[in-house]
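Students often ask why inverse folding is considered easier than folding. One informal answer: many sequences map to the same fold, so there is more than one right answer. In these notes we will look at a single instance of the problem. The structure comes first.
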């Protein structure tokens, strides 16, 4: 609930979304950079502490006018039919500096495995079918280096995976790369899961349509 309250306050403080004439709204930029196929194969080849992970993100419900919705699948290479993480991201701009990606889980997610490749992913359900992961939203700001950077807030994203009490995510997003560091911590703040040496580095492999435009 606290994460939803933070988002509501931020939205209330913003009179209008970033939509100056001739300037692409930040939420459109972030959604476009997120959309596509990504791979950590190069990182895995250089460092055996990292696995070869494939990440797929496809637009869903593209006729909606409340920001961008993306279906996300993450799987180990060689087991692409059994993704270990399936989420929906709702990417929405707040003012002229902030983009918030709210995270949702799916009911019976494995039945949607592979949907990212369909022409209309998740067409059998709607946002009303999703469960928001309270406290797990990612807050991103554009940096001076032409990248988005940010992450979750504090210890608000609850996780019980492998003895964790909460999880954190830090993100750096560019047009060609996504650096994502997901970690779980126990109630004492000790690291219990996730990469230890730094973020996973996902290089863009392919691009696909986002908001009616092929990028």
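Output (designed amino acids):
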């Amino acid at each position: 609930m606290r994460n939803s309250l933070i988002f509501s306050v931020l939205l209330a403080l913003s009179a209008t979304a970033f939509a100056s004439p001739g300037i692409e709204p930040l939420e459109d930029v972030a959604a476009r950079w997120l959309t596509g196929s990504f791979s950590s194969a190069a990182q895995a080849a250089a460092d055996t502490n990292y696995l070869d992970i494939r990440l797929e993100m496809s637009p869903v419900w593209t006729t909606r006018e409340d920001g961008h919705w993306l279906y996300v699948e993450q799987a180990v290479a060689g087991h692409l039919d059994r993704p270990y993480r399936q989420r929906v991201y709702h990417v929405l701009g707040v003012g002229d500096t902030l983009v918030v990606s709210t995270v949702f889980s799916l009911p019976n997610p494995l039945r949607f495995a592979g949907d990212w490749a369909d022409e209309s992913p998740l067409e059998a359900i709607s946002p009303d079918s999703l469960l928001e992961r309270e406290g797990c939203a990612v807050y991103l700001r554009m940096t001076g280096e032409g990248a988005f950077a940010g992450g979750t807030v504090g210890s608000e994203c609850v996780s019980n995976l492998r003895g964790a009490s909460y999880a954190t995510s830090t993100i750096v997003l560019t047009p060609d790369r996504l650096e994502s560091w997901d970690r779980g911590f126990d109630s004492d703040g000790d690291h219990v899961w996730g990469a230890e040496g730094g973020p996973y580095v996902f290089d863009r492999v392919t691009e696909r349509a986002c908001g009616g435009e092929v990028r």
